[in-house]
Prior knowledge:
Blueprint: E1 3-8, E2 13-20, E3 23-27, H1 34-42, E4 46-51, H2 63-70, E5 73-76, E6 87-88, E7 94-97, E8 100-106, E9 115-120, E10 126-132, H3 155-170, E11 178-181, E12 199-200, H4 201-207, H5 217-225, H6 235-244, H7 249-256, E13 259-260, H8 262-271, E14 275-278, H9 282-285, E15 294-295, H10 302-310, E16 317-320, H11 326-334, E17 341-345, H12 348-354, E18 364-365, H13 367-373, E19 379-382, H14 386-391, E20 392-394, E21 398-399, E22 418-421, H15 426-437, E23 443-446, H16 449-453, E24 460-462
Parallel strand pairs: 3-4, 4-5, 5-6, 10-11, 13-17, 14-15, 14-16, 16-17, 18-23, 19-21, 19-22, 22-23
Antiparallel strand pairs: 1-2, 2-3, 7-8, 8-9, 9-10, 11-12, 20-24
Amino acid sequence: MKIQQIYTGCIAQAAYYLESNGEAAIFDPLREVQPYIDKANADNAKIKYIFETHFHADFVSGHIDLAKKTGGKIVYGPTAKPEFEAIIATDNQEFKVGNYTVKAIHTPGHTLESTCYLLIDENGKQHGIITGDTLFIGDVGRPDLAQALVKELTTEKLASYLFDSLRNKIMPLPDDLIVYPSHGAGSACGKNMSKETTDTLGNQKKTNYALRADMTREEFIAELLEGLGLPPAYFPQNVMMNIQGYESLDKVIEKSLKPLKPKEFEALANQSEAVVLDVRHEDDFVKAFIPRSVFIGIQGNFAPWVGALIMDVKQPLLLVTPEGKEQETITRLSRVGFDNVLGFLDGGIEAWKAAGLETDHINSITPEQFAAELSEKNIVVDARKPTEYEAEHIEKAVNIPLDTVNSNLDMVPKNEDFYLHCAGGYRSVIMASILKSRGFHNLINVEKGISGIRNTAVPMTHFVCPSTLK
């Protein structure tokens, strides 16, 4: 069977391309749709269907643009109510793509309309299943995202639906079936995803905690909900864009790709409510940046961090980018619905400095300098996730996870210098930029984070598994 996974690491998302006998289908496409069209053209195939597993929360799908450009029909599962033309499949409805068959299997739980697509080859053999956010490798989808739309739902009720969907619809399928999920490790749509992006269903039955054969409904609900943090604030906004529609990406790029001379950029920043978003590498940012700008580098998990920290997809943005990365930045912002870019700094930070305009910087030191300076009196702030902190942290360090910084400013020291670090140096610079934009200038960033500090003599506290205690 000709099925290709198209994985985008920065948002941990997988789309799929299926082709047979001159017909093609795309599953859960990203917003930039030209690569799918190019693949179909290379195969002399026509895109017949655009299958959506559910209304996505963590990214804006390319379903509408792709349908307009190719004539392909958008397909959702039962109970979906999009505000545009689409086929609403019934449970077990079959669709032909060339000599292949795609069977819709309604699997509510992650959301009410969540649907998996069983792939059947020309000989009638069940080859694989595109599971969306119903089943991941090592995990299953979080059951709390639909509450933003249907208030009477509870996470427990959705988790119960998911228990039934997995046991009654997915687990009875053949063990050699290939599982094709929509996300991998790093996505906020689950909590325990593997770095692997495909597996056999049989192996998942052996290794995925949520597919244990002897698991009761109550045990499933308890384990699924344990340690489930709040979803990022931008998730409901992306859901609504996927339901209601959105502006064409071509138009978004056209209006956003606007070069601004330093004086124009400065005037617009002062006159508007725009956030200056600097996407260069953290090593460059700490040396010189526009005062009160926010750093989120495009070399990391850029779009999810923008969504988690800036939160409002309608927020006006002004961009500072590496040369030649302007359109890429705009495109990657659009993946999570941030379409309101007012323009970018023409010539970058060097042009800003050449115009004699003010810059700021972040005090940043090496792990070795940190080790030499650190004493019991110093305050250390750890910007990593709680699970990272619990596994290993500097003695007496205070944990303020990056994604909570906006709601935890009262935990940040105000009157004395403090050290700030993360795992590798990316997240701490993001947090440092946010804190400086809010008037906290008493911070010292530690380059390379824990990965560098481990190589020094700084005392660390490590988690010890209870089973190893005597």
